[in-house]
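Q: Hi! First time doing this. I have a protein sequence and I read that you can turn it into a structure. Is that right? Here it is:
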Amino acid sequence: MKLRFIASRALAAPRAGDILGIASGLRRRLLVMLIAPLVLLALLNAWVDYRSADNVSLQQDQRLQALLPLLADSVIANGTNPGDPPMLMLAPAVDEFLKLPEHAYAILDADGKALRGRQWLESLPPTSPDPEFHSEERLGVTWRIVRQREQTTIGEAVVVLADASDPRQQWARAILLKVLLPNLVMVAAAAFAVRWAVERALRPLLELRDAVERRSPRDLTTINGAASPEEVRPLVDSLNRLFVMVNAQAESQRRFIADAAHQLRTPLAGLQAQVEAWAHAAGAGRDAQGMLRLPAEQVDKLRDATRRTSQLASQLLALSRADAGNMQGQPVLPVDLKALCEAILETYLDAAGAKRIDLGLEAQPAQVAGHEWLLRELVANLVDNAVKYTPAGGTVTIRCGERQGLAFLEVEDDGPGIAPDERQRVRERFYRVRGTTGEGNGLGLAIADEIAHLHQGQLELQEGAHGRGLRITLTFAG
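A: Yes, that's right. Below is the predicted 3D structure, encoded as structure tokens:
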């Protein structure tokens, strides 16, 4: 056997929460998000009412303070009897003010004794000339009272005005009935309305939940997305995509099991037939020592059937492990293609030498991200097929490296090749080219194709050099 090894020193190139609880969670969230602003608005309304009442009260204090000088100017000394209470000639504004029953006045002397007006307004006179304001409750009514020292016709006196219509006091009493109670009633009514609206809005989602709950584990049919609300449609679409993928994987597994059972039946039947022939030969004769003599042809057939069964089991296992669904979560690591091809070359040297096949390697350093054991399985299947179907004295070449910036793996032989119209069908599981002889199971290229798809690569089948044989190239995506 002539061994070719061509290696360059080029630098290596561097690659849905569950549906069962989502409705209740959304219901609580929507209720909180809608009711909380209503409560805040009720509190804001109460605060605005209080501020409004406070502003009105400030205006009331200013009005009372403005009337005090007018009340002082209305005091006239009693000229007939100086000991009698003073007389009043009320200014129009003061007269208009005192006509209302919730208003009161008093004229006090310097000691705080009432000379005219309400006796209950007597008190200690102010200690300063500034007006003094305070609130006082009398017979269940809160009065806003202002006192101030003023110079009058009878001398220095204390004028007092009282107003029982203080908005702040009214607000303190009426806030429950006029503000908080209506707002609480509104919040309660809104809560029931929102709950009803949320129930109606979430009904399609609840129906979707019930539909999923009622499904059997084998029911993977898609859900009608048109019957779902627009907001839930992305979730339905995601579920449908998941159902399609799971259904496809389950169908692939069912097909794989059916194919495996069918294909294992043939070699196992052959193995059984050979064993039976061996047992039948036991009666054909024994040697001088009484040992069973078997024809060499029978032994070779038994060996070939055993090898084919073992190879088929290994290939079926590799095909199952190469499934993309089974590789999810497996780490993707850098793979040295040159070292990989060198290892495969060493593995098949003896098999190629037995057929006087020139097995060569043309390797350049190249690296890809992937699963090394799967790529090893791919190259091994391609080389095994090439060695198996290339006639004695032929040539098989393993190549790797880069072309146009993309890494590649390639196996080329000068054997019988594959007709162009069958190059797509040979990728199918258990398909063998018509008229092919040998121990193949029709799984080598199917395994290689699965691994190529898993690595986002493209597997191409072309004629070999000078229009002879077959060249299979795997080009990796950039």
